[in-house]
Amino acid sequence: MNDIKLKLEPGHVSDTDWMARFGLETIFWNITSACNFRCGVCFSDSGVPAAGELTTGEALEAIRNAAAAGVTDVVISGGEPFARPDLLDLLVSMKELGVTARIATNGTLLDHVLLERLRRETSVKAFQVSLDTLDREVYCDIHGAPATMLEVALDALRAMRELGFHTTVSSRVVPRTLPTLCAILDRALEERWATVTLHLPLHTQRVADAWPQDEDLIVRLEPVFNHFLTLRKHWVIETTIPWARYHPVIRGLSKRIRVAHAGCGACRSRLAIHADGTVTPCICLSDSAAHIGNVRRDDLGAILRTHPLADIYRRPAAHGICADCGNVAHCGAGCRTAAFVLTGRIDGLDGSCPVRQRRQKRGTVAHAEP
Ligand code: SF4
Ligand code: SF4
């Protein structure tokens, strides 16, 4: 994911040399394409179940497959995960195998009773609730949902926090939500949500037409970062964008607040499973060019170790990607999903990288930046 997390409350932060990590730790799992909303900004084109979604038995087998491969953490999204009637059973099975879960949800199919059961019977530790705006009209329009759903989602967030779950609100940065993001930060402070995650949909095959492809969203977000820094509580900024540390706005921010770089775990410490069991390096990339297996038949650990595409993610310079840039050992040659969206090739160049853009303007190759 190309995310920037604005963390208000102290907690977990990842600031690792992600290029050095190798070994499956996390699965991103789009567990269903079913959803009770019809979001115009949907990241996964959801609404109805996908053809050939995993049955309960196959999903339980997928969990065993992941645990045997060393996975300790599963991030569940959809669609709307709670549209899947067997979700509680799957989560109980994860707990039995020592696997923790984090769930991305729109928050509207959850009530206090279900949340209490999740607390007691499962190892769910965190929720990420999609809340792109607090403006009722925009919310209804964007989510294709009745106005009352905004209050339902806010109530669910309150219950999650009261029950001790880590609460993140996630907002997709599109032209209609950008002006409303500061109000979400103010509400986060008021409601004691731990984190506001900004999803940058550009170059991730998702709502790709919401912005011109050469838009610099980090520059557009500068007023939101400045607002975050004025909040009475603001702890850390964490980004998963591989080249983020070289962006001038992020560099400026790092002089004012700790900025952590969690980077890209695709094919290093993470794989993605789609609703029909297809495995890809990254949950943002579902094109057939990125299919590296199916959890119905393939061992997840073996995919990570042996699939030729995985090697492109881990050793990009050996495949000629960004071999001209001195940052490649730390940056990993940018985002492979962005490269695919921009060039049609998974081993293409991530042209959204500011280092490459700067060097191309100057007519030189991309060397290391200070
Ligand atoms: S390839 Fe990596 S950086 Fe790009 S969207 Fe996927 S996880 Fe994020
Ligand atoms: S040119 Fe490539 S390796 Fe260099 S900073 Fe940009 S994406 Fe990373």
Provide a descriptive summary of the structure in words.
The chain is α/β, with parallel strands linked by helices and 370 residues long. The protein has helices spanning 56-68, 87-96, 112-121, 136-143, 148-162, 181-191, 217-220, 222-230, 248-253, 300-306, 308-314, 328-331, 336-343, 354-362, and strands spanning 3-7, 26-30, 73-77, 100-105, 124-130, 166-172, 195-199, 236-239, 259-261, 270-273, 278-280, 293-294. It has a 12-stranded mixed beta sheet, covered by helices on one side. Strand 10 and strand 11 (278-280) form a beta hairpin. The model has no long low-confidence stretch (mean pLDDT 91). The structure holds iron/sulfur cluster (2 copies).
Bound small molecules, by name, code or SMILES, are: iron/sulfur cluster
Strand content: 15-25%
Q: Give the rounded overall mean pLDDT.
A: 91
Q: How far apart are the termini?
A: 25 Å
SS class: alpha/beta
Please summarize the sheet with the most strands: 12 strands, mixed
Using only CA atoms, what is the Rg? 20 Å
Number of strands: 12
Q: What spatial form do the alpha-carbon principal axes imply?
A: globular
Q: What order do the helices and strands follow? A: EEHEHEHEHHEHEHHEHEEEEHHHHH
Count the DSSP helices.
Answer: 14
Detail the poorly predicted runs: none
Strand order of the largest sheet: 9-8-1-7-6-5-4-3-2-10-11-12
